Structures are given as C-alpha cells and as structure tokens.
Amino acid sequence: MAANTAVRALEMSWRSSKPRNARIVELTERLTRLVAVDRDADTAIIRYWNPSTQKVDYIKTKMHLTGFVLKKGENTGYAFHYYVDDQKEGPLPSTPEWPNPQVWELKSRNNTGFTFPDGEEIRVD
Questions:
Q1: Domain of life here (predicted)?
Q2: Where in the chain are the domains?
Q3: Is 110 left (phi over 0), alpha (psi -120 to 50) or beta?
Q4: How far apart are CA 35 and CA 15, in angstroms?
C-alpha cells in the first residue's frame, strides 16, 4: 500500500504587519507551514514576527516568530514559537534544553475560538 502523500490545503493569514522583506515573508510562511504539516492543521495564523523585541526589563531577545495552527474540523489548535538566526535565513538549532519550535496545545472555547495557556483568547472566524 502506498503512503498517503496528499497535501492538506492550508489557509494562512497574518495577524501582524507583514514584513516588507520577501525573504523574511518566505521564511516565516515556510516555518509556519512546517508546524502545520507536523500537526496536520488546515489553518495557520501568523501572529507575530519580531526582529528585535525588548522585554519589560529591556533585555534584548532573539529574533522570533509566533503563531497558531488549527484543525478547525476537529476544534484543536496549537500555538508555536520559532527562534530565527540573526541572518534571518532559518531557525536556530533545537536542543533538549531549548526546543525550536516550542509548541503548546490550545484549549477550545465552545467552537468560538481558543484560549492560549496564559489566558489570552484567540477568535477564529
């Protein structure tokens, strides 16, 4: 029996300002697609691309992107966070102490959206 090689259609949207640099857009969409394929998702939401975030205590963080991948029909979802190298060419290597990407399961809210682990709500239209 042949392996199932069908590719699920992926609806992808940006919930942040789309970067002007086409290479960064391609990298972001490629990494998002990897998480979506891994979780068998049909919808991907790119939540944030941040080239130089500063935390409250003003410690500079690594470049990263965050988003969500969802299986709308099954009402399941995952949040993900990818750290990107300084040249914006690919993800940083994953280690046992620092997995890349980091993925968290989202909690469903009665078919109206999801709740992020910190309580933030995500509406799915």
A1: Eukaryota
A2: 11-123
A3: left
A4: 17
Q: Which alpha helices (H) appear in 10-110, and where do they start and end?
A: 22-38
Q: Cα separations (Å) of 67 from 6, 21, 57, 58, 59? A: 24, 19, 24, 23, 22
Q: What burial class does residue 114 get, using C-beta atoms within 10 Å of its C-beta: 0-12 exposed, 13-18 middle, 19+ buried?
A: buried
**pTM of the predicted structure, to 2 decimals:** 0.76
Tens digit of pLDDT at every position of the chain (125 positions): 444 445 568 999 998 888 888 988 999 999 999 999 999 999 999 987 665 555 445 445 678 888 889 988 788 889 898 988 888 889 999 988 888 998 988 877 776 677 766 666 666 65
